[in-house]
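Team,

Forwarding the record for the chain on the shared tracking sheet. I've put the sequence and predicted structure together so nobody has to dig through attachments.
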Amino acid sequence: MVKKLICLLAVCLLLLPCAALAESRVFDNANLFTVSEIQELEAYVAQLREDYQMDIAVLTSDAVPLNRSSDYADTFYEEHDLGTGQNHSGFMFMIDMSNRVPTITTEGDMIDLITDHRLDTLLDVGYDDLARGRYGSAAMSVLRQLRSYLREGREKGQFRYDAETGVRLTGYYNPLTPGEILLAVIAAVAVAAIFIMSVSGSYQLKGGTYRYNLADNASRTLTRDEEHFVTQRVTRHKNAPPPSSGPHSGGHSSSHSRGSAVHRSSSGRVHGGGSGRKF
């Protein structure tokens, strides 16, 4: 009996690290963080995941092929089954030591939250720390900035577009504010009330002795009307070409800062994100 209990306890102890590893969202494969930094990052990420119901992870790597940072991040995200819900909503920040660039990949609802100008800010916010080798501080700065965007929510006017072609893929996000909704309801009620009162008044015809004098108020005139077709003239004008339906490709344009550029990974899934400047 004692031996069985000892064996059961040993199995439980062996399973604990596996369970903890399964829930880990800080993958320090390049050994850049201290133990305390990993604990701090894990705690912060866990709180963000609980508060906003989207997956968040941090990765470091020194095994990324040349100029393939985004592809590597997308593949890692998918192979480690990151993301929540059917659309795999989530965010991952990667410190690529092979190419020395910060990289972000997003998927699902997080794509719409992280617009191009927000992405640029996230990639730059930890740049000084990255350049000085303070990798834990850089990752924490990115997560804190991400939290501020999650609090603010999706931006008005946000849309998705294809990163290669620049073609807009979705409509503009224009949610009604509570004030606009209230104003619309008041206007609708007012219009309905005016219409009802107008129709009701026209049918009631106040004054029961009212009679319409048909003989004095009606007339009839018959005339002969003839039309003869003579000729016609057709003038054609060349219209100017319509404006482009989407933003320009080739980077994040400030004129389309509320757009979210998307691309497809090698598996065909849609991701947002990209890489920053070298540190």
